[in-house]
């Protein structure tokens, strides 16, 4: 048998049963009494049973009405629960955060932060755009990422750049390399060395090229890779020396390499959070941004303490 009953009719029936009055029920539902009466009549026709005994003084449920009230209330309660569950489920599925960051952050810092974040935000979907500094900046500029972690963007008019720490560059070399015997190195000591470098389109490369511009004899770039991880692999294979940001070496799973600070002058980059000016992060994104902020600033303080 096809059930031809509308929820509005069930609501009308329950309201009349609770109020024992068509007038009070109509007022509570913000409809007219004739409209309410039509809903009850439609329901009685669908059930082929009379649900109310009506006199000029009172309205009372019939035995069929009393039986149907129990089930009608259960149906409406289940329907309300189903609607709330779907709404909550959709809200949870809509929760997502996109963070853009340079590979050194994605590989060495973000995994440590996401583990506790996943425990406190189990229903948040996190998308990571781990690309070059220029791509990270563009992702934030276009609104593809909620925020980013980058070392460029401070000069962009439409970008808020919150500097969190300054990350120095280290000379990375095989442990058996002659320069490994030194505690620190200067730029002149790298003259004539075969360098392993990141791509010329990289923000890292621009900083390194500017530093070498002041050195009379520049090192020879023998090998070039697109990513820092590739450069570390080549150094570990004994193919040359690389100048890499400190964070990139934090959890490097390579043996047989050492890193030495380069001074006179010290080369460093400002690492910070970037976002579109005026953009307010949703709570899930704001929490993740704060976790990254705390982790980067803590790392910066530890590095400063070691140098001191």
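Q: What amino acid sequence fits the structure above?
A:
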């Amino acid at each position: 048998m096809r059930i031809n009953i509308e929820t509005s009719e069930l609501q009308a029936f329950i309201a009349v049963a609770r109020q024992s009055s068509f007038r009070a029920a109509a007022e509570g539902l913000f409809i007219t009494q004739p409209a309410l009466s039509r809903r009850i009549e439609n329901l009685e026709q669908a059930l082929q049973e009379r649900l109310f005994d009506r006199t000029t003084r009172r309205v009372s449920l019939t035995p069929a009405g009393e039986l149907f009230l129990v089930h009608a209330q259960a149906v409406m309660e289940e329907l309300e629960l189903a609607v709330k569950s779907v709404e909550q489920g959709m809200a949870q599925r809509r929760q997502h955060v996109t963070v853009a960051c340079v590979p050194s952050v994605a590989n060495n810092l973000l995994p440590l932060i996401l583990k506790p974040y996943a425990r406190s935000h189990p229903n948040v979907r996190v998308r990571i755009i781990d690309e070059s500094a220029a791509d990270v900046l563009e992702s934030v500029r276009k609104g593809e990422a909620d925020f980013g972690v980058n070392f460029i963007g401070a000069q962009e008019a439409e970008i808020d750049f919150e500097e969190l720490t300054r990350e120095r560059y280290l000379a990375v070399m095989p442990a058996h390399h002659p320069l490994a015997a030194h505690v620190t190195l200067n730029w002149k000591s790298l003259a004539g060395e075969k360098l392993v470098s990141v791509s010329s389109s990289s923000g890292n490369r621009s900083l390194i090229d500017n530093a070498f511009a002041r050195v009379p004899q520049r090192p020879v770039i023998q090998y070039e890779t697109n990513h820092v991880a590739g450069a570390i692999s080549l150094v570990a294979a004994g193919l040359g020396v690389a100048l890499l940001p400190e964070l990139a070496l934090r959890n490097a799973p390579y043996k047989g390499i050492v890193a030495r600070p380069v001074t006179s002058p010290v080369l460093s980059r400002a690492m910070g959070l970037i976002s579109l000016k005026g953009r307010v992060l949703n709570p899930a994104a704001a929490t993740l941004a704060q976790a990254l902020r705390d982790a980067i600033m803590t790392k910066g303080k530890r590095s400063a303490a070691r140098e001191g």
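Q: And what stands out in the fold?
A: The longest strand covers residues 159-174.
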